[in-house]
Amino acid sequence: MNTEKELMSRSGGVCELCKSSEGLSVFEVAPSDASAEQSIYVCSTCRDQIENPHKMDEAHFNCLNDSMWSEVPAVLVMSYRLLKTLGREDLVDMIYMEDSLKAWADAGAGSNSSNVIVKDSNGVVLNAGDSVVIIKDLEVKGAGFTAKRGTTVRNISIPSDVADHIEGRVNGTKIYLKTEFLKKA
């Protein structure tokens, strides 16, 4: 039996993370030997967000509340990594894993997440999708306007390469903002 057929049988023909039945494919949970034991069956939405953590939608991954209890080691490892990426330490702390499984989860974590922790001016961790409030009037270079104090920036994204910036829309223009001038809403 090939890996895809084995995973389809194991999952019942649905994504092992979110239970969607659209665009399913095999995803190897690195480091992997490409076996079914070290792979999961995921939908195209989950796969896209795993491979592009800057696009990660925390609302989509509410499904991890269920998949983190999976008895399938690869599903458990991926759930652990995604929860860590989303900054959901409250849920990560509930996951019980044998030492070998925890080592596997931590070994491949760098390949799927940026490991950049972004904090606002008060030291509160910011995640993609959060809302922040600007705490000082800021001149927006090249755009010809000032981002006013008190402006709420919704649905921010976190650049994967810079720990002290977020990306969001102000006055309909997508801009980078330094986190020292922001507080979580």
Description:
The chain has seven helices and eleven strands. With 185 residues, the chain is α+β, with helices and mostly antiparallel strands. A three-stranded antiparallel beta sheet has the order 8-5-11, with no helix packed on it. A two-stranded antiparallel ribbon has the order 1-2. It is elongated, with a radius of gyration of 19 Å.
Q: Over the alpha carbons, how many angstroms does the gyration radius reach?
A: 19 Å
Tell me the fraction of residues in β-strands, as a range. Answer: 15-25%
Which strand order do you get reading across the main beta sheet? 8-5-11
Distance between the termini: 51 Å
> What order do the SSEs take from the amino end to the carboxyl end, as H and E?
HEEHHHHHHEEEEEEEEE
Number of beta-strand segments: 11
Give the integer mean of the pLDDT values.
Answer: 89
The low-confidence runs, each spanning 5 or more residues with pLDDT under 50, are none
Q: Report on the biggest sheet.
A: 3 strands, antiparallel
Proportion of residues in helical segments: 25-40%
Structural class from helices and strands? alpha+beta
| Anisotropy-based shape | elongated
How many helical elements?
7
